[in-house]
Amino acid sequence: MKFIVLNCLILILVSSKCEDECRDPLKWPFLSSSIWNTPIGSNAIFHDPKIFHSSFVLPHNFFSDDDYFIVTSETDPMTPWYNQGWWGNPDGEAHCNITGQFLRNIRFPVNLTVRQFGNNNAAALLQPDNHTIINTQPLYRCSFGSPVLSLLREDIAGQDDIRFGNGTWGAHGGSGLSSIGGTIRLGELLPHSPPIRHALKIQLNATAYYYDKRPGFVWPALGCDGYAFDLKNPHHYGGKDIYLSPGSLLAIPSHIDIQLKTQPGKKLLFALKNYGGYICDNTVANRGTLGTEHGVTEEFESTYGYSFNAQPKGSTSQWYNDLLLLFQSLHIVINNSNRTIGGGGIPLQPPSPPFC
What we know:
Elements: H1 2-14, H2 18-21, E1 46-47, E2 61-71, E3 78-83, E4 101-107, E5 122-126, E6 132-136, E7 148-150, E8 159-161, E9 200-204, H3 206-209, E10 249-251, H4 263-274, E11 277-282, E12 287-293, H5 296-304, H6 317-328, E13 331-333
Parallel strand pairs: 2-5, 2-12, 3-7, 9-11
Antiparallel strand pairs: 1-13, 3-4, 5-6, 6-8, 9-12, 10-11, 10-13
């Protein structure tokens, strides 16, 4: 084992081969058996839910829902954590008002703020032991040194181990799935980065797509939105496809040929054909959404010259068209289960490498 590590270190100086032989848990976490790291299998049974086809309205846009991966250390100050993080109806700065109960003090970087008031703000806080992750959503931290405001999740979904955990569950409110598993990480959409070798996180408009009968979710989800069957709520579930719910694994069957124009679209195509993506939350609007690490959208625009958030017209129209083709090609793996992750059979990709 020592020889392999030494060999890997030498290879760093002469090639990128080391990236294929081992992985950084901070960038590519969880066991190789995790749902996020398990490829689609040869026995996968596919069902076409006709996403964004003629029976549905075309999406107004495609959007990124930021997830936060926050590495804490023993040098970070102890910071008050309040059990809050509500969506409700506040505007902007109103999210910063402390209305929840004090939980305890936690380590948190003093100069890190989270001020995106329109997103789910799922967050994974890596603890100073470099193993334990606290999952929480939605996270707000409105100014340097101010309290952390976010819902407490300390049940089975609340904590995980970045190296030795499966990373299945977390704090996404519409499913209970991981706050960082399945997230498109910084660098993964850059032109010369390796292929994305993990499942993604996907969101659709629940009123149009998520099955309107109980229980409202399928494995590996732990639950669904609290308003799912409240017909008085405008965002209630209204779909008619029995296979499409939070927790559903969507993937593009390998035999489907899609001609894409953009480099990031081709990167997503590889991930969606080989690993798929799990429904984790509700867009509450007519759009398609992917989970991205905070900073990916800025990195994306700086690299490609157009916004990640795609519109059908203007500078992002080609990117919009690629995303539309990808979403329209998604099928549900209806035999995905805890015994047959990805549908079972021969995996389309090799297992993820060991940690460096």
